[in-house]
């Protein structure tokens, strides 16, 4: 089965840039979606199709995808960005959705 | 405004059954694929099942295939998850989530409900 690997945690100072990676075999050939989940809340879509942002999501959130790694970048990090982040893809070989292991972003 | 409200969660014994519902409003329900995603306490997100807008395409995670059944009633703007032969490892918050269109494969999940907790314990 297809596996998506994320770092368990990323720490960043306010105003700096956070980069969250999502590793998977040839993930660059798939569309990657990213979700933000704050404690006690439902996930929220922040990036879809590798690099598109839903309406209402700040431009500070951006995405890229190439080779075996997709990346969610949060620029000018704010305290309110502290949350868990998950990547997601569709694995066409198994007709399954797959979520990454999740990354906890801590704002120092 | 899109709203997804899950219900039907609760405490059930191992081997028991439960039916979850997701009431949708604020959009044309019959035009969108729908999904169930769960999250065990303190754990990450796990995809459970997806259904296309017309119920023509249905997919399940290996962990629930043969035990869970996803369905929808477009006339009632409702999504369902029938869960049978429940196990302790099925304990989780179950979210319903809306896809961006009629197709079910390869899509993002645009909107999520607040979830309903299912606890499987004797």
What does this structure look like?
- The complex is a heterodimer of chains A (108) and B (122).
- Chain A is mainly beta and 108 residues long.
- In chain A, 0% of the residues lie in helices and 45% in strands.
- In chain A, strand 7 and strand 8 (96-99) form a beta hairpin.
- Chain B is mostly beta strands and 122 residues long.
- In chain B, the strands form 2 sheets. In chain B, strands 2, 4, 5, 6, 9, 10 and 11 form a 7-stranded mixed β-sheet that branches.
- Chain B is globular.
- The N and C termini of chain B lie far apart (40 Å).
- The model of chain B has no long low-confidence stretch (mean pLDDT 97).
- At the A-B interface, strand 3, strand 7 and strand 8 of A face strand 5 and strand 10 of B.
Features:
heterodimer, A: mainly beta, six-stranded mixed β-sheet, B: 122 residues, mainly beta, seven-stranded mixed β-sheet, four-stranded antiparallel β-sheet, 11 strands, globular
* Through-space gap between termini of chain A: 36 Å
The helix-and-strand class of chain B reads: mainly beta
Share in β-strands of chain B: over 45%
Percent strand of chain A equals over 45%
What shape does the CA trace of chain B take? globular
Describe the secondary-structure layout.
The complex is a heterodimer of chains A (108) and B (122).
Chain A: E1 9-12, E2 18-23, E3 33-37, E4 44-47, E5 61-66, E6 69-74, E7 83-91, E8 96-99, E9 103-107
Parallel strand pairs in A: 1-9
Antiparallel strand pairs in A: 2-6, 3-4, 3-7, 5-6, 7-8, 7-9
Chain B: E1 3-7, E2 10-12, E3 18-25, E4 34-39, E5 45-51, E6 58-60, E7 68-73, E8 78-83, E9 92-98, E10 111-112, E11 116-120
Parallel strand pairs in B: 2-11
Antiparallel strand pairs in B: 1-3, 3-8, 4-5, 4-9, 5-6, 7-8, 9-10, 9-11
């Amino acid at each position: 089965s297809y596996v998506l690997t994320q770092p368990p945690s990323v720490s960043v100072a306010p105003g700096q840039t956070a980069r969250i990676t999502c590793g998977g075999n040839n993930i660059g050939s798939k569309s990657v979606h990213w979700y933000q989940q704050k404690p006690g809340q439902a996930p929220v879509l922040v990036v879809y199709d590798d690099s598109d942002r839903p309406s209402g999501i700040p431009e500070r959130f951006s995405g890229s995808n190439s080779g075996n790694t997709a990346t969610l970048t949060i620029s000018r990090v704010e305290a309110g960005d502290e949350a868990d982040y998950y990547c997601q893809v569709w694995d066409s070989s198994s007709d399954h959705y797959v979520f990454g292991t999740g990354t906890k972003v801590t704002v120092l | 405004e899109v709203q997804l409200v899950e219900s039907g969660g609760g405490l059930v014994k191992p081997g028991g059954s439960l039916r979850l519902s997701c009431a949708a409003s604020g959009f044309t329900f019959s035009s969108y694929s729908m999904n169930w995603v769960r999250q065990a306490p303190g754990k990450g997100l796990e995809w459970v099942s997806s259904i296309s807008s017309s119920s023509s395409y249905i997919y399940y995670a290996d962990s629930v295939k043969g035990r869970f059944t996803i369905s929808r009633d477009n006339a009632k703007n409702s999504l369902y998850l029938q869960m049978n032969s429940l196990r302790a490892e099925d304990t989780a918050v179950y979210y319903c989530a809306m896809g961006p269109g009629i197709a079910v494969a390869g899509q993002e999940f645009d909107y999520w409900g607040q979830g309903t907790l299912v606890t499987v314990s004797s």
